[in-house]
Specification:
Layout (H helix, E strand, L loop, with lengths): L10 H8 L4 H12 L4 H15 L4 E7 L5 E7 L10 E2 L4 H9 L3 E3 L21 E9 L2 E10 L7 H19 L6 H4 L10 E4 L1 E4 L2 E8 L14 H24 L7 H13 L2 H12 L4 H18 L3 H22 L12 E5 L15 E6 L7 H9 L3 E3 L4 H4 L5 E5 L4 E4 L3 H23 L14 E6 L6 H6 L3 E6 L1 H5 L7 H15 L3 E5 L26 H7 L1 H14 L4 E6 L5 H20 L7 E8 L8 H4 L5 E4 L1 H8 L18 H17 L3 E3 L7 H9 L4 E4 L4 H9 L3 H12 L7 H10 L5
Parallel strand pairs: 9-10, 10-11, 11-12, 15-16, 15-22, 16-17, 17-18, 18-19, 19-20, 20-21
Antiparallel strand pairs: 1-2, 1-6, 2-3, 4-5, 5-6, 7-14, 8-12, 9-13, 13-14
Helix pairs in contact: 2-3, 7-8, 7-9, 7-11, 8-11, 9-10, 10-11, 17-19, 18-19, 19-20, 24-25, 24-26, 26-27
The structure holds phosphoenolpyruvate (PEP) and magnesium ion.
Magnesium ion binds next to helix 22.
Length: 765
């Protein structure tokens, strides 16, 4: 019967010996290592020592070959001839099962287990009990250490733990070439080495090939075995003390605030004081490991366990626990936070990045970013886009599949990552990049060419921005101004609410950088998916339809007034253009406009300088406004169409949900007609109008927009070159006539008609 315990008669006294923990065993292993000789000889000696010490008749080591097969590398007790002969397919047998599960298997009757597989050449018939533990390195199994006994016995919990400690030490020794010859080592899979292709989501456009660097990379312990256990225990205590202090300090810095950051820090604090975690660490040190090796041992096990957890919340907490262990390793290594050296072509690998993390790296060396989690609206993606660094996210299992130093490709055009790509993939990638670079160079040459259509119509190309790092794109792209400055980005990348002077300073800097070029500031567009870690937000069932943007600003005017005050003060003596997001009724706009007037009056009363001109506009992002343009347009100085949101609300399709976001086409009669309504109404009333959604940066869509009569387009900086090339090849009147036709179409999409039209008119889309 599997699991029955029958103690072998002879072993009780000897067990007493083994129960003392792995310390003396580790000492013996160290002595064997010091003895010299070929690696295989040392490995043979090690399995012998373990067998004797664990009072096992068999001790074997299996390592994973590059082919993923498990191979018997050394044995005491099984037949010698089987060494380097017995091989098992991935998942085969109990050894395969230990590998698969990444955790120990302890059986009194191994042959009765459904996974048992019999290999006659090993001569393992007489052995009943089986204990296999994974050789874990950084949470991944590189092999399996097995002990077996004739008698049907269940190994005790402390025996399992001891064997796990030894397995970790052996895994490191294998990796360092001490136990396996260097020639052999090339064919042993110590870290993932096969090429892999992971599909994710594109968060920032672009292509990059470079060298993986793990953000918060685990610090590998240099020394595993302690010379003096007491001293190690003390080092561990000191380090955990520092760790707790660090967390307390971080929490104090956030006094009175709530949100995700605080939740994570609270979880850190809870774990840092967790008795179970601390006890596991202490036990590991007492067993003869250095403090670093102890942390690694506990961390490694947690990672293995984490991979098994079904519950997302639990997995998240285990992530926290793992991050904490990394922090502890860093403290033990005496590493100062943020002191990272990057290779010249670094691709940063992270679970997710917090506010400002990305900005701490040397930008000239950072070529790409891969994230396990995140979203288009997450801090990391926003900053990556602003810095022009290609970024792909939602790559599940990423950090376990890539090691620092691996070659990686970030494909921010498709939303994929290639890990350790094959040479042919690298070649294909390089030629794609070369074409892209060539095209970029061509477009760069257009930088100073004004955007006139062939029939002489001026098209104004503006860029969208949101951070100070965006500003250099003004000169780089030749944009004629900033058509949308997303002020909430400053709030989203900050650790706490930016104060009045910080807001004023940013706005003044934007205006300085723009000089004569126009800038349209959009007031805070928070809420929805743009949550601030430091502001308490109530959970909403439908955040996109919830309390966000101008709704928040009008209900809690203090924040909005502070922002308007900052804008007015920054624009002193210059023109200030400000617009409000997600307005759904003329009354909301009226109220918002009133707040601007009040702030101007406030500044005047105090004798503060005010802008030379103030223009107040509205973003058209909600369908309701389309049927009230006659009332709205006379009240406003300008409008800008936010097609990202307008499309989302027009088609009731969440823009952040990949399953539905591309389901409906902007180049379709209903969407084009909606835009046409705006274009015509603005023309009639002489209201300046621009488009500032992402699609203004796509040549075909921009072609259609110009065909509908729009002549001011604001877009992501990367769109300016391609759109300008399109404009220069365009006959606007012909485009207008053609577009009028497609508006009447009866299909769900007019894309192919518009493509044919562009081809017919020889437009460079
Ligand atoms: C839009 O909705 O089109 C827009 C430009 O605003 P945001 O993308 O910031 O919501
Ligand atoms: Mg919007």
């Amino acid at each position: 019967m599997v699991g029955a315990t029958t103690w072998g008669p002879a072993s009780m006294a000897e067990r007493g010996q083994a129960m003392r923990g792995p310390r003396s065993l580790l000492r013996q292993i160290r002595e064997a290592m010091a003895g010299g000789g070929p690696a295989q000889q040392r490995l043979d000696r090690v399995v012998q020592i373990i067998a004797v010490s664990m009072v096992a008749e068999v001790c074997s080591i299996y390592l994973r070959r590059a082919s993923a097969d498990m191979e018997l590398f050394a044995t005491e007790g099984l037949k010698r001839e089987a060494v380097h002969v017995t091989r098992m397919k991935p998942g085969e047998g109990l050894v395969g099962e230990v590998m698969r599960l990444n955790r120990p298997i302890n059986l009194s009757e191994a042959p009765l287990h459904p996974s048992f597989s019999y290999h006659p050449e090993t001569g393992e018939d007489p052995y009943h009990s089986f204990m296999g533990v994974p050789l874990l390195r950084g949470g991944r199994s590189v092999g399996v250490l097995v002990v077996q006994n004739r008698t049907a016995r269940v190994y005790g919990e402390d025996e399992v733990e001891d064997l796990q400690t030894i397995a970790m030490v052996l895994a490191e020794m294998v990796a360092s070439g001490e136990l396996v010859g260097l020639d052999e080592l090339k064919d042993v899979e110590l870290a993932p080495h096969r090429p892999e292709r992971l599909r994710g989501l594109k968060f920032a456009e672009g292509l990059a090939l470079g060298t993986a660097v793990l953000h918060e990379a685990p610090v590998a312990p240099e020394k595993l075995l302690a010379d003096d256990a007491g001293e190690e225990e003390q080092r561990l205590h000191q380090a955990t003390h520092v760790l707790r202090q660090q967390i307390d300090n971080m929490l104090e810095g956030h006094h009175g605030l709530v949100g995700q950051t605080i939740d994570v820090l609270e979880a850190y604090r809870m774990f840092a004081h967790d008795r179970g975690w601390n006890r596991s660490l202490e036990d590991a040190v007492r067993s003869g490991l250095t403090a670093e090796a102890a942390v690694e041992r506990v961390r490694s096990e947690q990672r293995a366990r984490m991979a098994q957890a079904r519950d997302a919340y639990l997995r998240e907490r285990l992530h926290d626990l793992e991050d904490l262990a990394d922090r502890l390793l860093r403290i033990l290594a005496g590493e100062a936070p943020g002191s990272r050296e990057l290779p010249d072509d670094a691709i940063l690998i992270a679970r997710n990045l917090g506010p400002a993390d990305l900005l701490e790296y040397d930008r000239s060396k950072l070529k790409g970013l891969l994230l396990e989690e995140g979203s288009t609206a997450s801090h990391a993606s926003i900053v990556a886009r602003a810095l022009g660094i290609p970024c792909v996210g939602r790559l599940s299992g990423l950090r376990d599949r890539v090691s620092t130093g691996d070659a990686v490709i970030v494909d921010g055009e498709i939303g994929e990552a290639f890990l350790r790509p094959r040479p042919d993939i690298i070649e294909a990638f390089k030629s794609r990049s070369a074409v892209r670079a060539l095209r970029r160079a061509e477009l760069d040459r257009l930088r100073d060419t004004p955007a006139f259509t062939r029939d002489g119509a001026k098209i104004t190309l503006l860029m969208n921005a949101g951070l100070a790092v965006d500003l250099e794109n003004l000169d780089l792209t030749g944009a004629e101004g900033i058509g949308l400055f997303r002020t909430e980005f400053q709030f989203m990348v900050a650790e706490e609410l930016p104060r009045l002077d910080a807001q004023t300073a940013l706005y003044a800097r934007v205006l300085d950088a723009a000089g004569d070029r126009s800038v349209v500031f959009r007031t805070l567009d928070l809420g929805g998916d743009k949550v601030l870690p430091y502001l308490k937000a109530e959970r909403e069932d439908n955040p996109a339809l919830g309390w966000r943007a101008v709704r928040m600003g009008l209900d809690r005017p203090a924040l909005m007034r502070m922002q308007l005050r900052a804008l007015i003060s920054a624009a002193r003596g210059r023109e200030l253009r400000v617009m409000f997001p997600l307005v759904a009724s003329v009354d909301e706009f009226r109220q918002a406009r009133l707040l601007v007037d009040r702030e101007i009056a406030w500044a005047l009363r105090r004798g503060r300088p005010i802008p030379a001109v103030v223009r107040v506009g509205v973003m058209i992002e909600t369908p309701a406004l389309l049927w009230h343009l006659d009332a709205l347009l006379p009240m406003t100085d300008f409008v800008s169409v936010g097609t990202n949101d307008l499309m989302q609300y027009l088609f009731a399709a969440d823009r952040g949900n990949p399953r539905v976001s591309d389901r409906y086409d902007l180049l379709s009669p209903p969407a084009l007609r909606a835009l046409n309504t705006i274009s015509e109404a603005c023309a009639e009333t002489g209201t300046p109008v621009s488009i500032c959604g992402e699609l203004a940066g796509r040549p075909l869509e921009a072609f259609a927009l110009i065909g509908l009569g729009f002549s001011r387009l604001s877009m992501p900086p990367a769109g300016i070159g391609p759109v300008k090339a399109m404009v220069l090849s365009l006959d606007r009147e012909a485009a207008r006539r053609g577009l009028a036709q497609t508006l009447r179409g009866a299909g769900g999409s007019a894309r192919s008609e518009i493509e044919s039209l562009a081809r017919k008119l020889n437009v460079a889309v």
